[in-house]
Structures are given as structure tokens and as C-alpha cells.
Amino acid sequence: MRIPCPYCGPRDVGEFTYQGDATVTRPDPASTDQDGWNRYVYDRANPAGKHSEVWQHSGGCRAHLIVERDTLTHAVGAVRYARGSATKAAARPAAKAAAKKTSPRKPATRAKAGK
Amino acid sequence: MAEYSAFSLLKNALNGHRDWKPAWRKPDPKPAYDVIIIGGGGHGLATAYYLAKEHGITNVAVLEKGWLGSGNIGRNTTIVRSNYLLPESIRFYEFSMKLWENLSHELNYNVMFSQRGILNLAHSPAQADDYIRRGNAMRLGGGDAEWLTPEQIARTAPGVDISGSARFPVVGGLLQPRAGTARHDAVAWGYARGADRRGVDIIENCEVTGFLREGDTISGVQTTRGEIRAAKVAVAVAGSTGRVMKLAGIDKLPIESHVLQAFVSESLKPFVDGVVTFGAGHLYMSQSDKGGLVFGGDIDGYNSYAQRGNLPVVEEVMSEMVAMFPALARVRLLRSWGGVMDMSMDGSPIITTGPLPGMYLNCGWCYGGFKATPASGFSFAWTIARDEPHAINAPYTLDRFHRGILIDEKGQGATPRLH
Question: pLDDT 10s digit of each residue in chain B, 419 long?
């Protein structure tokens, strides 16, 4: 299993740390709804098939990623940064720098090559 | 159906083994039963057996999607132990151990239960303290445990690297002498035969595709072999729990399905006596009667229904095995496979009535379901027959998560991949 990191390109799954189901949403910290917190902490859809999940590229750029993956086949689909707005800002200068240096690392094309 | 005995073995050996009869029938499903058990694995078959034997409920169908024992009962590393810390776990697994100790006689089927002991190696003073605490808890709970020094370990398991220069030096080990291994397929076959001869219908190649309802109450199942009705429908499908429960409209459970890999090496002459586990990582190994080393480690750590894993865990398991037994470095791997584990949020199982009226649920075994097979079947049958839990499974409710009374052996919190 390889995950195409949007920053580093396709990398072995061993470089990544799994952080679970990305569809669970944390309640408002001010919320006192006990059931809502219980559902957030304990209840999972656990689908057989398409699963949206959080991985961290802990052995690479350390970005948190949302990975669309099939739990029946392990096929990895779309990968994006977990925090869209923050990571766009972080990724842009790196991409520009890479383009200026005409470095062989081309994040966009590499990401496509991942399976 | 004949009893198995030394005499029948001899008689059949003399005439070329032509007269053995099938151990269970292959009946067509009837339109209705008293109880339907979904899942023809170890736990489902044991449940059917104890329903018939302990509660006299014999109008029972066990529905299995594939062939009997094709799931985790045939995919595990065959270890039976009861070396737990928490009182609920000790009570449950000790109960199971006592059933194991008489299981071959009980079933008239040799499950090859061999109490060869399990040795948990400790690699730091803190880990030794933790293991000794667990050993004391086991003894207080009526079990058995002994602390071994490195010198005693060298005599018990001569291949273990106890040298001070080991990457993770061994400071001692916790031995449970009554633990051991059993022939996993034989457990499924023995329970299937025992249930079948008491009148239970075991229906293979019969996949449940939906649930029948009368109002809010579950009243049967739709299957690939037609509708089957029953007042009580029990679910014991381990890694497929999420999939099956979705058919009943239960979309979320405190369960994640993960893949666990297991490995068998080429056959060796007797190398290690009992089960040995590596405490500086996660590895458990024993040697089968055929001579192959049977071993496994951590789950892969991501949601999966694939029954196969990836290479990083393979590499980790192999490196741990070589750290523990340097002499095995050149042994070749023969086979590896994966099974789907129903990882619960606290690492403990769920054996309960509900969550819908007419339904009973048995799941959340993480990767410790095999040793629990007898007690799981016994207590689940009790729960189904009496609509209330037995004392040993009373703590294993589904609502314990929301009520905050978790049974978390490892203290990992709600992270299924770490249990």
C-alpha cells in the first residue's frame, strides 16, 4: 500500500501514521451534550468499502492528510491536506520553490502516480 | 453417528479409512427456527452447542456465509491463555480456560489442547513490575502465574537471547503454565459435530442479506437461500459485525474492523516448548505439532475488511522474532495470511441482548477471540436462552461505552488500533 502524499509524492504506508475515521466531527468544545461527545469518542460507521480517513505523514513532511481508501481492497484514492486553508498556505511556497529550482520533485505529478 | 474412540480409529485404519461418516449433516434451511445464529465460526458454533446442551434449545440454525470455519477460527495463531489483569477479564477467561481443560472429552473430539505454557518476556524493570502485578492479579483471581528469572527462561526456552548485549535485554518473564495451544480447526469441527448431533442445523453457503421485522422486533433473516424466521436472532460474525449490523439499520457501533496477519515458517525439529511473547514489541510464537513456527504480531493498524495485510508489519514481526530468537534468522517463511478483527473501543468484547428487540450481539473480540471460544459460546447461549447475561458476560454490555464503565486491559483509551 502506498499513499500519494500531496507534498512528498507516493510513499510507502510505513511512513504514515493512521489516525482513524475522518468523518467523525468533534463537538463544539463548549458543548455539554453527553451523547454527542460519546458518539464522537466511541461510535464508528466502520464501512466495508469507501472510507475517508486521517493519516499523518509522520515519516515525511508530517502533514495530516485526508485519504479516501477502500477497506475491501486497500486501493488508495484521493488524498488531500486535512486542514485545507492552513496547508494551502504552507504548501504554496514549497511548491513555488521547487518550481524555481527546477527540482525533480514535482508534487502534483508524483501524487498522480500513486496507487 | 459413532463416538470417536481408539477402537474406531483402529477399525477404520485397518479398512483403509473408507467408513468414516461426515461429522455433520448438510440440511436445507427450514422456514422457521427458535433461534438463528448468524456466523458459523467458533463462537457461533459454540453458542449453538451450548444452547442445545445447557438449555435444551435444539431447534437452532447456524447460518454461515462461506464454509464452516472459514473465518477467524481457521486463521488465528491457536493460543489459549487467561493472563489478564482486570477482574472482569480474569473471571471470563479463567472460566474459558476451565472449559478448555475438558473440551476434548466434552466434545468427544480431540481439539489437541496442549497446556504447554505461555511466557511473556519482560525487557525493563518497569515492565517486570507490571507483569508481576498482572501475575499477582491472576493468582488472586484463581489462575496460575509464575515469575521466571533469565536463567530459568534459558532452561524453559533455550533459544531466547538472554544476553546482556541483546538490543532489549530480558530481565525476566511471566509464565502461565496452564496456557497453551489448541488445534483451531478441530475446535470448529468439534463444536459443529456436537451441535449437529443434538439437532442443530448448520447451513453453509447461506449469506444473510437482510433482517425481517415485525414492528420494531427482529423476526428472522433474509438469506441467499430464502427467508428464515426465528423469535431470536443472534449475531456472532466478528470482523463482519459492521456489515451485518448495517443490514439491521445499526449504522454505528464502538467497533472498527482491522486486519491482523499471521505467519507460519517451514517445519523445524522441536525448537521451542511453549508459547513465547516478545515484550519490547508485540510478537507471539509457538511451534505446531507439525514443526512450523506459528507467529504473529500487531494488527496493521488501519480499517480493513481485506483479509490481507501489508509489508511493514511483516518486516516488524520478522525483526522482532530474530531479536528474540537470533538462531531463527535463516528460517524461511512458508505462509502468511490475514484475518479481519472486530476491534472494540476498549479492547474487550460485547456479549449482550439487543441492540434491537429479538436480537443478540456477540462481537468486539479484537484479536483474542480464539481462546474465548468456549466461554463466549457458553455465556452467549445463556444470554439468548434466558434473555439476561450470565455472571461472566454481565460486564460486557454494549452501552458500557456511553456509560463510561469501560474494561480497558491495556489502558489505551478509545483507539481500537492500539488494543
Answer: 568 889 999 999 999 999 888 999 999 999 999 999 999 999 999 999 999 999 999 999 999 999 998 999 999 999 999 999 999 999 999 999 999 999 999 999 999 999 999 999 999 999 999 999 999 999 999 999 999 999 999 999 999 999 989 989 999 999 999 999 999 999 999 999 999 999 999 999 999 999 999 999 999 999 999 999 999 999 999 999 999 999 999 999 999 999 999 999 999 999 999 999 999 999 999 999 999 999 999 999 999 999 999 999 999 999 999 999 999 999 999 999 999 999 999 999 999 998 999 999 999 999 999 999 999 999 999 999 999 999 999 999 999 999 999 999 999 999 999 98
Per the CB < 8 A criterion, the answer to whether A81 and A64 are in contact is: yes
| CB-nearest partner of A46 from B242, B311, B417 | B242
- A101, with CB counted inside 10 A (0-12, 13-18, 19+), is exposed
Cβ partners under 8 Å of residue A30, min gap 6: none
Place of cell 433474509: B222
C-alpha B247/C-alpha A43 separation (Å) is 17
Domain boundaries, chain A: 2-28+37-98
Report the alpha-carbon distance of residue B139 to residue B117 in Å, rounded. Answer: 15
Please answer yes or no on whether B253 and A43 come within 8 Å at the CB atom.
Answer: yes
CA-based nearest distance A99→chain B, Å? 33
Measured between beta carbons, which residues in chain A are less than 8 angstroms from residue B345? Answer: 41-42
What is the topology classification, in CATH, of domain A2-28+37-98?
A: Folate-binding fold (3.30.2270)
Contact indicator for B369, B72 with CB cutoff of 8 Å:
yes
Contacts of A12 in chain B (CB under 8 A): 312
Q: In what order do the strands lie in the sheet with B333-344?
A: B146-148, B172-176, B118-122, B275-278, B283-287, B292-303, B255-267, B333-344
Instruction: Select the residue from A44, A52, A65 to test the B interface by mutation, using most B Cβ atoms within 10 A.
Output: A44
Q: Three cell numbers at A53? A: 480517513
At residue A112, the pLDDT reads: 44
On chain A, the residues whose CB falls within 8 A of the CB of B414 are: 41-42
Interchain contact, B304 vs A41, CB within 8 Å:
no
Is the distance from CB of A74 to CB of B304 less than 8 angstroms? Answer: yes
Cβ contact, residue pair B257, A41, below 8 Å: no
A68 touching B (Cβ < 8 Å): no
Count interface pairs A-B at CB distance under 8 A: 71
Q: Element (H or E) spanning A98, and its range?
A: helix A84-100
- Per residue in B293-307, pLDDT (tens digit) is 999 999 999 999 999
A21·B303 Cβ contact <8 A: yes
Partner residue facing B401 (CB), from A20, A38, A48: A38
